[in-house]
Amino acid sequence: MQAGDSNAARRRPDAPIWSQAAERFPPADRVLSTILTRQAAQYRDRTLFVFGETRWSYAETAAIAAASAARLMQAGIQAGDRVALMCSNRPEFLEIYLGCAWMGAVTVPISTALRGIQLSHILRNSTPKLLVIESGFMPAIETLENDVAPPDLIWTIGNSAASSVAPGSITPLPALGEGASPAPVRPDDTVAILYTSGTTGPSKGICCPQAQLFWWGVYSARALGIRESDVLFTTLPLFHTNALNAFYQALLNGCTYALEPKFSASGFWAAARRHQATIGYLLGAMAVMLLAQPKSADDTAHFLRVALGGGVPGQFHGPFLASACRCSTATARPKRISCSQARFRPIVPAPWAIWSRAWRPASSGPTMSLSRTVRPASCCYDRASRWPSRQVISKCRTRRPKRGEISGFIPAIGWCAMRMATTASSTG
User: Fold this and answer.
1) Burial degree of 115 (CB within 10 A; 0-12, 13-18, 19+)
2) What is the 3-state secondary structure (H, E, C) of 284-334?
3) CB 132 within 8 A of CB 94
4) Is 427 exposed, middle or buried (0-12, 13-18, 19+ CB in 10 A)?
């Protein structure tokens, strides 16, 4: 805890951390550098991030963010510049994201599946100054349309792959060095541009402010009942909002964020047990795939208390809980769980509803200025904390968004929390 942090000093030990986030982090402090610095001072050597053999403590993560920011600035990246990031789940993804957030640049995560027209659209639309790309995805650059050129500067992650695209500008990801001081970033500064899937037209670039990610972490933690020292486990891609949101949930609540390279139906429960995960994240198809796996006694030998699942069809709710619910067994675990009341519990209000409410100004609702280019639109304010948020959808008109449509990509239905068990008692 930093000296002089009176709000943190007044933290009520009997209350969830997320319930005190607005007090501990006043509006001006709702930026990644301040949040990470303050949490690192409080939790120091507690593990924040786990990926394979890689483990970062809170203090180490802050140092990595500062060093990554310095690396970007040495390459000529300035506040407001866009850094495109095409990378699978691995520590380097977070290095780049944290560095950008620390020094005020904007991360543009790109789905690793994109090629051709879709990839060309995102690069044309976001105009990044730097592209950081995993070497295995370099062939995607060669599928760009003729009128789209990659950035002049490209950093590759992993073993370099030969490419005929701008060979003179491609260099391996530089090593981390000394750290940089946090830049004077504001809560309404864009920290990331997240593109929609593009199922109904060209992908829309959603300009996400620093404070939006803060509120994502707070509201999602409230919805899931996250507790200090929980282990948040995800196999979802970091370029997707779900996994990025989970990192903020962990950071804000003193938890550990356990990341896997990708989803494996046959290896999911084993990975959850290995991490001793208490919170999990799924999408609808993942739950169905887990149900299709051969039954095993190990299916319930996990520590998961809650799993967030988006779009899980209703007919699979009961079967999934019957298959995955933790009952009291002889398996050693911190708590014995009574699952007689286990059920799917819809999040009320759901994340999209919470988000909509947080962005509703004191008047009748947010009005967004919509443009064909990715740029911040008009600011909307939360009635309580008055923090500005920004939004953009690439259509050439102005209108008031419908409920659940504010984000441009968060679904209005289908989010639910799977309570693996609703009662727990310590047994030693």
Assistant:
1) middle
2) HHHHHHHHCCCCCHHHHCCCCCEEEEECCCHHHHHHHHHHHCCCCCCCCCC
3) no
4) exposed
CB 203 within 8 A of CB 118: yes
CA–CA gap between residue 25 and residue 46 (Å, rounded)? 20
Query: CA separation (Å) from 4 to 7, 21, 206?
Result: 9, 17, 36
Average pLDDT (322-336) is 50
Amino acid at 29: D
CA 246, 248, 249, 252: dihedral to nearest 10 degrees? 160
Handedness of CA 404, 406, 407, 408 (dihedral sign): positive
Contact 89, 51 (CB under 8 A): yes
Q: What are phi and psi of 132, to 5 degrees?
A: -105, 120
What CA–CA distance (Å, rounded) separates 302 from 326?
Answer: 7
CA distance 219 to 129: 33
Give the whole-angstrom CA distance, residue 255 versus residue 48.
Answer: 6
The pLDDT value given to residue 139: 93
Tokens of 243: 């996994």
**pLDDT digits over 221-255, tens only?**
999 999 998 999 999 999 989 999 999 999 999 99
Q: Are 129 and 81 in contact (CB under 8 A)?
A: yes
Tell me: pLDDT of 35 over 90. yes
Tokens read off for 182: 């946090």
Pairing of strands 130-134, 153-157: parallel
Q: Quick one: tokens of 140?
A: 């995607």
**220-236 per-residue burial string, b: 16 or more CB within 10 A, e: under 16:** bbbbbbbbeebbbbbbb
Of 130, 143, 135, 133, give the one whose Cα is nearest residue 162. 135
CA torsion 127-213-140-145 (nearest 10°) is: -30
Do 151 and 129 form a contact (C-beta atoms < 8 A)? yes
Question: Which residues are CB-neighbours of 201 under 8 A, at least 6 positions away?
Answer: none
| Beta-ladder partners of 381 | 388
Distance in angstroms (rounded) separating the CA atoms of residues 32 and 354: 21
Q: How far apart are CA 35 and CA 40, in angstroms?
A: 8
pTM of the predicted protein model: 0.77
Cα angle for residues 239, 243, 245 (degrees, 5° grid): 105
Higher-confidence residue: 407 or 147? Answer: 147
